[in-house]
Amino acid sequence: MTESQGVTTGHRSTPIADRENAPLRPRPWRPGVATAGLMGLIAIGLAVAVAELVAALGVWVGVLHVNSSPLAALGATFIQFTPEWLKEQAIQAFGTNDKLALRVGMMITLAILAGLIGVLARRSPRPAVVLTVVLLAVTAAAVLTRTGTGPIDVLPTAVGGIVGIVFLVSVFRRTVVRDDVSVGTVTATAATAGGTTTDTDRSGAAHPMLAASPARTTDRRTFFRMAGVGAVVAVAAGAVARWIPSTAEVAASRDRVALGAASDVQTVGDVALQVDDLSPFVTPNDGFYRIDTAFTLPRITAEDWQLRIHGLVDREITLNFADLMARPMLERMVTLTCVSNEVGGNLVGNARWQGIRLDDLLAEAGPQAGADAVLSTSVDGMTIGTPLAALTDGRDAILAVAMNGEPLPVEHGFPVRMVVPGLYGYVSATKWVVDLEVTRFADFSAYWTDRGWSAQGPIKTGSRIDVPKSFDRLPAGKVAVAGVAWAQHRGISAVEVQVDQGDWVQAELSGLVSVDTWRQYVYQWDATPGLHTVRVRAIDDAGEVQTDQLAGVLPDGATGWDSRTVTIV
């Protein structure tokens, strides 16, 4: 028996044979930072989707509260702790798209956290699991702060969290470094004629570079296969959660509402002015502004809706939707205005509302001496304080069930909302209302008043120029200066227009419907070439002229004259 250059003859195996017969080990591979971050995003996305699916199913079968949605709870908490100045900036920057901006901002924040979780799991799942548990605890706390929720309502958060953690660990535990296994003996050589190349030196020791290489138990293909499965399941769960019957039931419930004719209908007639690009006298439902704190639209059917009237009253009253619809209805044209409406803003709209009188309902309950407020609460926990006098002084304050001849759109309060002429929405226009407590202002602090807004918000006289637009270039001659003016529950008696520093001249007004609606106006201006500024101001029925003093929306509404600068050529 002879040996030559490390090759053994006879029945003894050779190093080359050993290498050829050795079992193949996985190629060492660790996901990069970006890949790990993507996997974290998929894991948290899966957790959120499963949680939302469980919440939707729980609401559908009646074991969970409508406020059990983790995303909705986080959104509400995000809104609650957002500084007031930042909320106003969002409303002014995004208008009625402020909810979309909030969703995008929250999703970006969640995506960053998810990516960080994935990066942490790259070396060891333990710190990633800890951060995930912290995120779940915050979410559970947010759910428990929502009106009407209890311990059972954290179930969706818990189930989603468990699914996300199991997925995360099952993926990354197969790619973490294992110090007990080395690939120093794994062959990385090939035989050549006349000799061999090995991964050991002449003393038989493993090559130092290979000896330092950590072994892993999975490969790139398995990793990405699991990522794909997780992403598909997350998308599917999210889609099912969105279209679960609880959402469909609300739409079906709305379709089943038979309005019938109101017994007291306001005569409107053909009062609108016909001017190109002028706001229509009646704002269509899909064009009506929406400003509220609901991160996701509350889902309550007419069949499940119930209203409780209690507090400082002689008789507590509970009504369901059928009770409400059996009462005499009235229909009124009322203009609503948001307190966040800046000078010249579009957070104002006019609509036909149908419902029952609040003064009649409160009279049945019998407010007690000393009561001066009604604290209304929506199904999602929003609270609004309204002066009791504004609900009992004879104005057309109503519990509305219809808007412009159809059941309330979900985004505008279906099945029932409050409409109170003369007050900004933040102290009167509670959507999805389910509770009215007769009380005293001294005994509570409502959502917005708790954040620095005035407790009582009468609407200030306002006006807006719709046409021309700022910086328009228009031909000389007749130019229509047109827009709308409002002073709800006082009425508009005149609108005046000024060009540059000239005299104020009266504009033509649309027909009068009531003191609770806006009025359109138009002034036919004989425009001459040059750069000009046009201004507008309104006068209410008491003769009070709209103030020119500029003020922001906080704490009780903006003031000042709207203006447009145009070039006449």
TrEMBL record:
Transmembrane segments: 33-61, 100-121, 128-148, 154-172, 223-244
Alphabetical GO biological process terms: sulfur compound metabolic process
UniProt entry tagged with the keyword Transmembrane: yes
Membrane in keyword set: yes
Alphabetical list of InterPro entries matching this protein: Ig_E-set (IPR014756), OxRdtase_Mopterin-bd_dom (IPR000572), OxRdtase_Mopterin-bd_sf (IPR036374)
Gene3D superfamilies xrefs: 2.60.40.650, Oxidoreductase, molybdopterin-binding domain
Residue ranges occupied by any Oxidoreductase molybdopterin-binding domain in the UniProt entry: 296-442
Keywords: Membrane, Transmembrane, Transmembrane helix
Biased composition (Polar residues): 1-12
Alphabetized Pfam families for the sequence: Oxidored_molyb
Region (Disordered): 1-25
SUPFAM superfamilies: E set domains, Oxidoreductase molybdopterin-binding domain
Molecular-function GO terms, alphabetical: heme binding; molybdopterin cofactor binding; sulfite oxidase activity
Protein name: Molybdopterin-dependent oxidoreductase
Organism field: Nakamurella flavida
